[in-house]
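Sequence, please.
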C-alpha cells in the first residue's frame, strides 16, 4: 500500500492485555493484535494486584509488529501513535528502570513487578488518612479520595520502602509511563495527573497537602521530579509529546524514529473519545445530523468491562459528591470532565456465575450445546418466564433484591467498605437459581448506573443518552436494562472491543495533525467514529413501575447497610 496515505496506531493497555490497532484516517481499523499481560496476585492477601511495565512493553512491541505485518503497510505510513492504559501506578528510577512494589524484602529494588494495578486495594489506611485532611484536593474527587488512586499507593510504598530507595523513584499513572517509555520525554498528561494523582485543576500541585500526609519530599523545592508536571510540563490529550518516538523505542516497535506520539488518556477516557462523537442508526436509518461539540455534554460515555467508568464533559466545572472531578483540560483544552465508576461489574457477573453450585452443570451444558454460558442462562430464564406465565425477566425476579458492591462503592457513595447483599434467597442450588441470580446482577448494575446518572444530573449535568463500549456491550440484556432502568437511549458502538483503542488512535492523529482546540479535536472524533446503533427504552408500564420500586429498594439497601454498620461499630467499641 502507498505510504502517502496516513495511518495511525492506537495502543490500549487493559487490565489483562495490551492491544494494538492500525487505523485509517476515516476510523476504519485495518489490523489489530491483542496480547495477554501478566497479573500477579498474593494468595495471602486478596487486595493485591501487580503487573510489570517490561512485560506490557514486550507485548506492545509484538502486537505492533504483527499489525504492520498483517496489513502490509510500511512503517513510514504510520504518522501518529497514541496510548491509553488503566489508571495504575507505575514506579521506575530516573533512568526508567522498573522498581519493585511488592511488600517484603524486595520492595524498592530493581525488578519487574513495578505496577500496582488500579484494582489493588492495599492502601485503605492511607486513603483514610488522606480523607481526614479536608484538603482542597478532595474537592476534585467528589469529597472522598479512592484507595484506587495513586497518592494513597505512593504513601503505602513510602511507609515500607527504605528512604534512600524511595528517593530514587519516579511515579507515573500508567498512560504517562508509556508515553515516557516511547519518547524519553517526562511530560505528563492532564488526564493522568488531575484524575489520579491529586494535581488540582488551575492550581497545580498542592505542597501543603503532600507535606501534611507525609509525602513532603515529593515537593522537592517545587521541582516535583518524582511526580512530573511541574512548571507547565503537562499536556491535554493528543498534544505531541517531546520529539516523538525515540530511536530505541522505534527499533523495538518496528516504527520510524520521530513518529508523533500524542499525550495519553486513561482507558475510560479513551473510550469516551472513541464513542461519544458517533452518529447512530435507529430502525435501520442513519441519523443525518452531525453532532456538535456542544452535544458532547449531553452524552455519558460508559466503558463497561471488568469494572465500569462513566465519563461526561462540560463547559463549566460541576462538583458532584461521590463522583470524581471536575477535572479541567483532561481531554479538550478548557473543558471539564467528571468520572463516576463501579469497581466491579463484569468481574461481578463472572463471580456470580462461577461461584454458584450449578456452575459445573452450566459449563457442561454450554459445551454440549455449543453456546456461550450467558446464552444458556438466557435460555433457562426464557423457559422460567414461560413456566411462570410472566412477560419479562424483571417480573420473574421481582421479589429478589441484589446490592452489587462486592468490591466497595466507587460512585456515588465513595465508600470502599460497602459490600454486596441478596435478599430473597431460597434453598435452591439449581441452574434455574443461577439464572435468576445472573439476571439480578445485571439488573443491579443497571440500577446503580441510574444512581450515578441521577447524582450527576442533580449536580448540574444534563445527560440525555448513554454511549457504551467494552465487553459488556455483547450482552444485549444488560444494554436494554440500561435503557429501561435509566429511561434514556443507549447507543452501542460498531465494535464493542475497538472503541477504546480507536480513541487511542485518535490521539495519534491529533498529534500528527497538530489539532489544538476542542473544535478541531471534535471534528477528528466525528470523522473517525463509526455510526452506532440506538437502543431505545422499551419497558412496559408494569416493568417501569417494578424497576422504580426496585430502585427505591436499592437506595434503601444502602441506608440499611450503613445503619447496620454503625450499630455494630457502636456495639463493639470499647
Amino acid at each position: 500500500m502507498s505510504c502517502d496515505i496516513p495511518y495511525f496506531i492506537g495502543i490500549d493497555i487493559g487490565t489483562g492485555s495490551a492491544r494494538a490497532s492500525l487505523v485509517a484516517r476515516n476510523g476504519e481499523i485495518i489490523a489489530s493484535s491483542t496480547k495477554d499481560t501478566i497479573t500477579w496476585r498474593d494468595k495471602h492477601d486478596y487486595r493485591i494486584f501487580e503487573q510489570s511495565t517490561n512485560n506490557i512493553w514486550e507485548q506492545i512491541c509484538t502486537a505492533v509488529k504483527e499489525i504492520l505485518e498483517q496489513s502490509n503497510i510500511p512503517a513510514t505510513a504510520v504518522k501518529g501513535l497514541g496510548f491509553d492504559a488503566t489508571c495504575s501506578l507505575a514506579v521506575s528510577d530516573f533512568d526508567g528502570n522498573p522498581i519493585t512494589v511488592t511488600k517484603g524484602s524486595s520492595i524498592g529494588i530493581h525488578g519487574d513487578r513495578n505496577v500496582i494495578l488500579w484494582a489493588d486495594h492495599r492502601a485503605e489506611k492511607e486513603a483514610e488518612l488522606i480523607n481526614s485532611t479536608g484538603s482542597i484536593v478532595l474537592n476534585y474527587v467528589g469529597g472522598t479520595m479512592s484507595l484506587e488512586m495513586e497518592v494513597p499507593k505512593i504513601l503505602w510504598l513510602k511507609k515500607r520502602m527504605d528512604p534512600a530507595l524511595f528517593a530514587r523513584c519516579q511515579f507515573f499513572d500508567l498512560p504517562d509511563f508509556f508515553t515516557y517509555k516511547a519518547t524519553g520525554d517526562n511530560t505528563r498528561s492532564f488526564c493522568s495527573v488531575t484524575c489520579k494523582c491529586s494535581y488540582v485543576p488551575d492550581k497545580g500541585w498542592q505542597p501543603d497537602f503532600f507535606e501534611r500526609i507525609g509525602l513532603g519530599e515529593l515537593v522537592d523545592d517545587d521541582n516535583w521530579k518524582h511526580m512530573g508536571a511541574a512548571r507547565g510540563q503537562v499536556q491535554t490529550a493528543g498534544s505531541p509529546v517531546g520529539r516523538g518516538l525515540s530511536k530505541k523505542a522505534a527499533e523495538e516497535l518496528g516504527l520510524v524514529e520521530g513518529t508523533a506520539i500524542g499525550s495519553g488518556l486513561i482507558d475510560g477516557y479513551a473510550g469516551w473519545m472513541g464513542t461519544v462523537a458517533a452518529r447512530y442508526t435507529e430502525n435501520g436509518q442513519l441519523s443525518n445530523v452531525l453532532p456538535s461539540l456542544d452535544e458532547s455534554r449531553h452524552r455519558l460515555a460508559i466503558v463497561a468491562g471488568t469494572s465500569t467508568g462513566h465519563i461526561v464533559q462540560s463547559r463549566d466545572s460541576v462538583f458532584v459528591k461521590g463522583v470524581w472531578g471536575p477535572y479541567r483540560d483532561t481531554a479538550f483544552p478548557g473543558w471539564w470532565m467528571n468520572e463516576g465508576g463501579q469497581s466491579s461489574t463484569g468481574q461481578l457477573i463472572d463471580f456470580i456465575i462461577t461461584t454458584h453450585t450449578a456452575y459445573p452443570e452450566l459449563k457442561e451444558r454450554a459445551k454440549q450445546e455449543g453456546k456461550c454460558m450467558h446464552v444458556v442462562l438466557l435460555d433457562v430464564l426464557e423457559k422460567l418466564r414461560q413456566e411462570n406465565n410472566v412477560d419479562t425477566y424483571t417480573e420473574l425476579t421481582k421479589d429478589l433484591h441484589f446490592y452489587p458492591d462486592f468490591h466497595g462503592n466507587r460512585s456515588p457513595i465513595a465508600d470502599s467498605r460497602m459490600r454486596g447483599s441478596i435478599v430473597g434467597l431460597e434453598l435452591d442450588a439449581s441452574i434455574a437459581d443461577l439464572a435468576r441470580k445472573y439476571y439480578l446482577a445485571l439488573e443491579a448494575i443497571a440500577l446503580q448506573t441510574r444512581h450515578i446518572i441521577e447524582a450527576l444530573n442533580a449536580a448540574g449535568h444534563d445527560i440525555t443518552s448513554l454511549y457504551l463500549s467494552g465487553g459488556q456491550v455483547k450482552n444485549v440484556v444488560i444494554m436494554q436494562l440500561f435503557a429501561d432502568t435509566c429511561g434514556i437511549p443507549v447507543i452501542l458502538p460498531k465494535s464493542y472491543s475497538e472503541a477504546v483503542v480507536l480513541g487511542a488512535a485518535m490521539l495519534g492523529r491529533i498529534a500528527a495533525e497538530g489539532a489544538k482546540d476542542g473544535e478541531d479535536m471534535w471534528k477528528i472524533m466525528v470523522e473517525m467514529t463509526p455510526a452506532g446503533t440506538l437502543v431505545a427504552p422499551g419497558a412496559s408500564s408494569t416493568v417501569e413501575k417494578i424497576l422504580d420500586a426496585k430502585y427505591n429498594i436499592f437506595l434503601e439497601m444502602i441506608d440499611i447497610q450503613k445503619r447496620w454498620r454503625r450499630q455494630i461499630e457502636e456495639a463493639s467499641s470499647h
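The longest strand covers residues 17-24.
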